[in-house]
Every structure is written in C-alpha cells, then in structure tokens.
Specification:
There is one protein chain. The chain is α+β, with helices and mostly antiparallel strands and 108 residues long. It has a single domain (8-107), classed as Nuclear Transport Factor 2, Chain: A, CATH 3.10.450. 26% of the residues lie in helices and 46% in strands. The protein has 3 helices and 6 strands; from the N terminus they run H-H-E-E-H-E-E-E-E. It has a 6-stranded mixed sheet with strand order 2-1-6-5-4-3, with helices on one face. Strand 3 (60-69) and strand 4 form a beta hairpin. The two termini are 25 Å apart.
Length: 108
C-alpha cells in the first residue's frame, strides 16, 4: 500500500481533524479558509467553524492524492460522515507560508 507523504502543516491539519485547538496551530493568525460558499478569516473564526462542523458531521477524512498547482498544495481526500452524499471526494487547496497554512479552500 502506498503512503501519501504530505507537507508537515497539511499532515498536522488532517491528523487533528476533530481537535479544533490542534487545528488552530496549523494556521497563520490571519489565515483565510473557504468552505461550502463561506469565507472564514483569522484563527479564532476558523477554529470556531471547525469545532462546529466536527461536532455536527463527525467526518473522517482520508487523503489519497497530492499535487502542486501554481504554488498551492492540492490534496484530494475521501470524506465520510453524517451528511448527505457521504462519502464524497473533496479537494483541499492549501497555500503554505513559513510552515503554516495561509489559506485553505475546500471544494468538490
């Protein structure tokens, strides 16, 4: 079985998916996150959003592909949880700065 090697901040992001405090440590203070048509700016806003979705959906995310695209790290992952259409493959488009996530856009 192939093991996907992710850059450290991205690996830490996926490892901490149900721990908003640990997730917050992966982002820059002024990071921007886009998910499901909404934009979240700043670590406190991102942390609150992640805590809400973690409790609501109990999702499990399994990354399966990584590619570089115009300076971004794009991860494809299978996400399963308590939501319509589960499981689904999502794209996570990360911009890294100084070993932290500066921006993240999640899409289908």
């Amino acid at each position: 079985m192939n093991t996907l090697t992710l850059p450290a901040p991205i690996a830490e992001y996926f490892a901490a998916e149900h721990n908003p405090d640990a997730l917050a440590q992966c982002f820059k203070a002024d990071a921007v996150m886009k998910d499901d048509g909404y934009t979240y700016v700043g670590i406190d806003t991102i942390k609150a959003f992640m805590a809400t979705v973690s409790a609501k959906y109990s999702a499990t995310t399994v990354p399966f592909a990584l590619q570089q695209e115009d300076g971004f790290q794009v991860v494809r992952a299978k996400v399963s949880g308590n939501f319509a259409g589960s499981p689904v493959d999502l794209s996570y488009r990360f911009l890294l700065e100084r070993d932290l996530i500066a921006s993240l856009e999640i899409s289908v």
